[in-house]
Amino acid sequence: MSMGCTAESTRQALAAQERADEVSQAVVDNQSQAMKILLFQSTLAQLEQAQDPKHAEVILNEAWNQRDLFEFWMVQWERAKALRLVGATTKLWSDQSTFDLLCKSVQAKVKRAPVEYPSTQPAGVE
């Protein structure tokens, strides 16, 4: 009978989603940092073995292109995260239980009652 989320379950779901997002962000930040360190170490090792300046230039260009891919990956992650947050929040707030909707309907009618039905007002109240 009561489908959807109550106010309390919505609050709990939003808090759980926030915690999950914090964990996901920490994982992505750690991955990004690890990839940059690995790229630096790999580039340094390749540069030490470079035999001429032209070969070193090629190695640095490849490293720079790889760095650009990392940055693009982070931008895409942020976009996806924003869309996921908006979607999850919208879904949770739109899933209200039947009981909550019924309560809101009754409250709205109680507020409108004095205007729509003035005879229901107690004597002396305007």
Question: How would you characterize this protein structure?
Answer:
- The protein is mainly α.
- The chain has two domains: 7-95; 98-126, no CATH class.
- It has three helices and no strands.
- It has helices at residues 7-49, 53-94, 98-116.
- α1 runs antiparallel to α2 (53-94).
- The longest helix is centred in the N-terminal third of the chain and has 43 residues, at 7-49.
- The mean pLDDT is 82.
Question: What labels would you give this structure?
Answer:
single chain, 126 residues, mainly alpha, 2 domains, 3 helices, 83% helix, rod-shaped
Topology:
Blueprint: H1 7-49, H2 53-94, H3 98-116
Helix pairs in contact: 1-2
| Number of domain modules | 2
Largest sheet: none
> Which stretches are low in confidence, meaning pLDDT under 50 for 5 or more residues running?
none
What order do the helices and strands follow?
HHH
Round the mean pLDDT to the nearest integer and report it.
82
Tell me briefly what this model is.
This protein is mainly α and 126 residues long. The protein has helices spanning 7-49, 53-94, 98-116.
